[in-house]
Prior knowledge:
Rossmann fold; 8-stranded mixed sheet; 12 helices
Amino acid sequence: MVKVIAVANQKGGCGKTTTSINLSASLSFLGKKVLLIDLDPQAHSSIGLGVNPEELEQSLFDVFDEDGKDVDISDVIVKGYKNLDLAPAQVILSAIEQKLSGIKGRESKLAEKIKTLKNAYDYVIIDCPPSLGLLTFNALCAADEVLVPVEPSFFSLHGLKKLLETVALVREVTGRAITTHSVITMFDRRTKHSRELVEDIKNFFGDNNLSVIVRKNIKLQEAAQAGKPITEFDKNSLGFKDYMQVAVEIMERCGRDDIPSISSFLAKEDPSPFSVREEVSGNDVVATATTVAIEIQTASRTDVAVSCYPKVVTGGVLFSFCAQEAQCIEIAGDFNNWERKKLNTPGLSETTWTTVVPLSLGVYRYKYVVDDIWVADPANEYRAPNPFGGEDCIFEVS
Ligand SMILES: Nc1ncnc2c1ncn2[C@@H]1O[C@H](COP(=O)(O)OP(=O)(O)OP(=O)(O)O)[C@@H](O)[C@H]1O
Ligand SMILES: [Mg+2]
């Protein structure tokens, strides 16, 4: 069954188009058949996929504008990349509100037209304009899910209540359960302000906020300028990694059970959004390690813990975790049937607990246990949900 996802937020410039293009491209990269509907008269999704709206004979305007013609979405589709098709926009789409005024059923026009596609696609992604007018209302009426990109800026939460109210109205009118998700975009970890705003956004959306945070990455802008999705522009970029994670998380949240493993697509030592990169030099080895601090709260104390991204060494994989007041640190994973194994107690003047686990090539899930509290490795942002409602860390030995 096709899943229709409207990417909506009436605030301008929050990343709707970038998310629409790159979520669509990442889903298609993962083997899904995707249609991207550019519902914005600015036609940025069309331009961002290398289509010149001025050269088009027909576009979504013709699909909406009856005028005696019977134009379906399939009549205006432009073939994009691999499994990705585009239904493009032209500036004339801005006239549709006036053109359809007073016409019965004008809010459900897009939903009707999407039905004619039958099951040609796994996902239909709709890039909405920055307004809550007729076009966005059409997208919401057609949607199973709404994805709200939010960029951490002073006004980012302003107006979101209105959007959620509109979604609630559509739920009532159509009688369908539409789920809203949010994704934080354009995150710049260097500013404290940005980090604080992220917390505000997370608090506002709660569990509906995707756990992946899309970082500010110039490659996403360059890709759009080159008329390509990030999957075709730079597979080593943070933008590629982040949007691949968005795609996987969306698939999980849509309840799809055929989710491919993406760890093989991703670089091994990519820092998490909050991480600090440090050069660590050994005897004659220079490695780049990612160390990240978190707070572990127990009933009696708060402990600042620092972990290091797992590292392949002679004899296996080195796991290291430092928590100054910890009495016992253990590791468990699918490589040892989730049996907790104690890390080596640090020497008197040291605080880092380490262990080398002999692992052959493969992808593994693991977690640390600090004084009986299960903790995801803060240095490892590659996560997958576990049956207990938490997340396991994913590590690949390649
Ligand atoms: N993660 C990112 N890193 C760097 N630049 C980004 C990122 N996401 C978006 N941008 C840039 O920010 C600008 C606004 O993004 P985008 O066009 O996706 O927003 P929008 O919500 O679609 O805007 P509009 O409301 O006008 O439709 C663009 O120049 C885009 O390239
Ligand atoms: Mg846009």
